[in-house]
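Practice problem 4.
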């Protein structure tokens, strides 16, 4: 059976005033419930919780890094690396593609230069 503990604040209905040399003094009354914690105890408890959370985060971060490295090595082991013949075939196909694309760009540039020279009346 859970017990609900509440903090009780007792306040006067109106301010109590006393006159001393024409000064008004106001008093506030507050009562703390039994079993409630002081501010120092709450601060200490909060600090412990924060330290625990920080340590847990650091451990999780370290585990995450280690898991990432292990996973990376597992992925590298699964890679099917090409042999020398396949590597040369792929390299030559890339070189041929670059030459064809460069030729097409140069031809397009020359064509556009010719058109603009005719339109603008240049040489």
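Answer key:
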């Amino acid at each position: 059976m859970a017990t609900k503990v509440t903090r009780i604040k007792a306040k006067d209905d109106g301010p109590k005033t006393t006159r001393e040399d024409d000064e008004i003094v106001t008093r506030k009354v507050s009562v703390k419930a039994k079993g409630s914690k002081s501010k120092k105890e709450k601060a200490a408890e909060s600090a412990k919780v924060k330290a625990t959370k920080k340590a847990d985060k650091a451990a999780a971060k370290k585990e995450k890094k280690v898991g990432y490295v292990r996973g990376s090595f597992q992925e590298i082991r699964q890679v099917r690396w090409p042999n020398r013949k396949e590597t040369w075939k792929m390299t030559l196909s890339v070189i041929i593609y670059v030459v064809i694309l460069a030729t097409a760009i140069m031809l397009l540039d020359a064509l556009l230069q010719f058109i603009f020279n005719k339109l603008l009346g240049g040489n």
